[in-house]
Amino acid sequence: MQKPSNLLIKVARRLFENEDEQTQFINALFAPQPFFPCILWCQEKPDVSPFLLETPTPWQPEFIDRLHLNEKPGQHSLHQEGYFYCLDFSSVFAASPLLTIQQPISMIFDMCAAPGGKSIFAWKALKPNLLISNEVIGKRLGMLISNLKRCQIQPSCVVNRDPSIFAESFTKSSDLVIVDAPCTGQSLLAKGGKAPGCFHHTSINKSANRQKRIMANSAQVVAPQGYLLYMTCTYSPEENEQVCEWFLEKFSQFKAVKIEHLSNYQSHLTDLYCYRMFPHQRLGAGAFTALFKNTEDGEVNTGNIDTILAMNKYVQGINESSYWISTHN
Q: Could you give the C-alpha distances from 64 to 4, 11, 39, in angstroms and in order?
């Protein structure tokens, strides 16, 4: 049997002091086991589930179900009809800080949206007046649009632009900005996938620099007293805790929010409120998440029909790079 790479072993040693936990982590990536399927109910949840269910976690929202291993929800007719969206439970973990937001959310801006799971979670949890899902990579737009249409996520739109454009055009406009950051994707290994070079320092540093640029642009879009949710599906501290530490140093108006229901997942690699799920915990392939609040006071450039209509006009002006799923009525 092939041995784990030295780079993987080094990452495990950085993440865990305990040798047994290092071994469990390495085995979860090197000899991956299937995780329970998970679905997000977009439409009204049936009284009797068409699937066999696992016991929910204490913090799992009502609109999420974990299913038995032998269930294949993507093949069910309700999936095609848009009743639910299939996702990894790690995505539920990463998006779950949104469940703590109590204030009304008028507009949500998802900066790195494809294939759409985090956008759909935010829409279901917070019921915004408008959801904007941006995807920079053109070849991923089709899947994003298809998922939002199938699941009847409205009012929403899909755009295809670099975050720097929105930083200039929509400053302080959104009550919530989501950054599901492009990363080295190390957790793909826990699902039996491939992520070539994901543990190499060159790939890690490249991703970390890109994440910082996206976060810097996204910070400009967050309205006063609004929120920014940062998450990745990778393990390297450079792409997770260190990005958060850099962000708070550069944008001092933001503060990390304590997420009580994730207290057992607090990262031991920082004093900030950051949370990690690891694959050997057997809930999902792994994720990192942190929620930040903009503590500034001031005018919000969104939240009323005039602003939404202005957004509609701007987005339609992008022509081929913009796709409306639904408009505000």
A: 34, 32, 6
pLDDT in tens, 115-127: 999 999 999 999 9
**What stretches of the chain adopt beta strand conformation (E)?**
38-41, 64-66, 84-87, 107-110, 130-134, 156-159, 174-180, 222-232, 254-256, 275-277, 287-294, 322-324
pLDDT band at residue 303 under the 50/70/90 scheme:
very low
Report yes or no on whether pTM surpasses 0.85: yes
Residues 6+ apart with CB under 8 A from 161: 134, 136, 318, 321
Percent of the chain beyond pLDDT 70?
90
Q: Has residue 160 got a pLDDT over 80?
A: yes
Q: Provide the terminal-to-terminal Cα distance of the chain, rounded to the nearest Å.
A: 60
Write down the number of H helices and E strands in the chain: 10, 12
Please state whether beta strands 174-180 and 275-277 pair in parallel, antiparallel, or not at all (unpaired): unpaired
Would you place residue 65 in the very low, low, confident or very high pLDDT band (cuts 50, 70, 90)? very high
Whether the CA torsion 171, 173, 177, 179 is positive or negative: it is negative
**Contacts of residue 160, Cβ cutoff 8 Å, sequence gap at least 6:** 134, 135, 136, 138, 141, 318, 321, 322
Distances in whole angstroms, Cα of residue 180 to Cα of each of 46, 92, 118: 30, 12, 8
CATH code that applies to domain 91-294: 3.40.50.150
| Alpha-carbon span 117 to 266, nearest angstrom | 23
Average pLDDT score over the chain: 91
b/e burial code for range 172-190 (CB count within 10 A of at least 16 → b): bbbbbbbbbbbbbbbbbbb
Residue 207 near residue 157, CB atoms below 8 Å: no
Distance CA 321, CA 19 (A): 50
Domain residue ranges in the chain: 91-294
Cβ atoms of residues 109 and 176 within 8 Å? yes
